[in-house]
Amino acid sequence: MSKSDCYVRYAIEPRPIVDFTESFESEIDNFGFNLLGTPLKPEGVIAESDMLLSCGQWADYIIGGISPESIDDPNIFQAEMGWATYLGITYIMFAPFLKEGSFSTIKEIEKDEKKEKEKDTEKEKENEKKQRQTKSIRQKNFDYARMINSVLQSTTSSDFLLPFRISDESSWNKWNETRLMAESYSALYPALILDSGKVHTKFLDTWRGENVKALIIPSDLFESLPSTKEGSETEKSYQLPKGIVELIKYFMSKDVDIILRQCGGHTIHEDLHSQFQYLKAIELNLPKLSEWELAFKGCQDILQDPLQPLKDNLESSSYQVFEDDTIKYELYEQAVYKALVDFSKLRQKQNPKVKLEESPIVVMVVGSGRGGIVRRCILASHNSKVPIKLYAIEKNPSAVITLRNNKWEYDHEVIVIDTDMRVWNPPERCDIMVSELLGSFGDNELSPECLDGAQKILKEDGISIPCEYNSFLCPVSTPRLYNELNENKKKLKNFETPYVVKFGKYKYLSDVQKCFTFVHPLPKESIKQNNSHNNRSKSFHFVISKDALIHGFAAFFDTILYKDVKLSINPIDHTPQMASWFPIYFPIQKPILVKAGDYLNATMWRCTSNDLKRVFYEWTVTYPVILPIHNVNGRSSFIGL
Ligand SMILES: C[S@@+](CC[C@H](N)C(=O)[O-])C[C@H]1O[C@@H](n2cnc3c(N)ncnc32)[C@H](O)[C@@H]1O
């Protein structure tokens, strides 16, 4: 990864603005950081003038820090928030909670303490005293969580950081509880404070799927290196322990803000400057992203409605995107090549006297778009030296214009048919029917319905490329996407719609399990007029791998094109570098809190209605909680037939 591959912003804090000797911007330029963390408390800027900076600078450069004193005193909290609002600061860091277990453990702790008391009367008084103290810390934290929530509900244009010590076992629970109390407010982000002497990578897993916005690195975590030149006044140099560097690398690759926190008597111009250079060097030495990874970095965590190429006519730009993914077309070419070689051998065995040139293999590309796969069929024929008669069947009138005007490789003839494959009466039947009507969940662009309809154009012994596809499901934690759906007013519809998404900040929480399978061609008698043979249902029993909040299911597909030629977006065996399909996200209305080793039972249905001309999915969770069945009768989302 080069510098331009990531979008890491750097901040130093805490630094009162009045410390600046030169102008604010030249100081920022000299140092090379993008943000400045500054306290909002009285001895910070709160007593200073708002004219220290311009309105734009307050908004663009400042992280306003709410003071720890505010936890105890709502008046301080409100004064600091009021000052931040007045200044137009849009990036606020709350103080961390007081050290204590998570909110939900109160009952258990009380029970334990009661048992203790019964056992040991001598400790009674001491215990009571302890209980009173700890309760008051908890109560303070509760009150603080409430204050945070009331700010979130009344502000719309700021980002809020809530800091947690990464190696505190109760941190994630406390974060999770706070965000649940705040109804998963999307502008509340966790910030992680690194600390020394702990196995950081162990905690990394806990936070992996979270939308962590900032990493706070206290300057005293750095180890000072002995000066190389004796007696000279060269700049001090510093390094961080290896485990911490690995953690920083991970978060830099996720574009989190890096906040270097001044402490341990370190000075800005000597110590922090050198530490800052060290951090920049880590960023510059991150492994370079491949072109492929780079191209898709900007697409992460963007929810898109799946395409509906049957109901809608695709635009030129969609075809362009498909055609840019050469891997898919190469694999189609391989599949057609292998099928042609097999067919020619079979033909020669069956009719040794008939020359292939006189009776070429008939190939029909159904749903041929602008001809990406048609070209590959021509190449496969040329390379295998198996002659073919080639048809391109497409129902999108605009794509048909392109097909008709295409100049084909080796001037091969292509018979272009402008029709819906389901209703076409062909002049002859084909040996090989090639299609690419697959969505990210396999069947979700209605390949089963289209190919069942088109099957009459295929000879009895003909083959379909693809011959099989499978969908897959896995529970996922993806707070960022959940929050986005939760913000929007049309909540029911949002949570009952599957989305195509390149997951960015997420955690898969179990093994990936097979959902539905479709094969082609089908025995004639199993194709039902009312399409009921394409209904499916599947129940799942997942074993959860990590403590987490489940926000729904990530879904994938794979397909067998021909024999060993496969395409897959299942993370277990994803076809390398293939970019045509991102996963699908099936959200759930209420996140479910799970622990490693817990079970999760879920059911997914594929439902078809010929009367309503639609196919839709319904899904639910039945353990550890029962959720309503999502998208009943396709009320929120469906695919048009
Ligand atoms: C996903 S695109 C694939 C296009 C092309 N095969 C490629 O890979 O570049 C599916 C194409 O099938 C066409 N299509 C979908 N359903 C069809 C149908 N029932 N009859 C004919 N064409 C159909 C769509 O218009 C679209 O052009």
TrEMBL record:
Domain spans labelled PRMT5 TIM barrel: 45-282
Keyword Transcription: no
Region (Disordered): 111-136
Keyword hit for Ribonucleoprotein: no
Keywords recorded for this protein, A-Z: ATP-binding, Methyltransferase, Nucleotide-binding, S-adenosyl-L-methionine, Transferase
Residues the entry annotates as binding ATP: 389
Biased composition (Basic and acidic residues): 111-131
PRMT5 arginine-N-methyltransferase domain residues: 297-465
Sequence ranges assigned to domain PRMT5 oligomerisation in this UniProt record: 468-638
UniProt similarity note: Belongs to the class I-like SAM-binding methyltransferase superfamily.
Listed name of the protein: Protein arginine N-methyltransferase
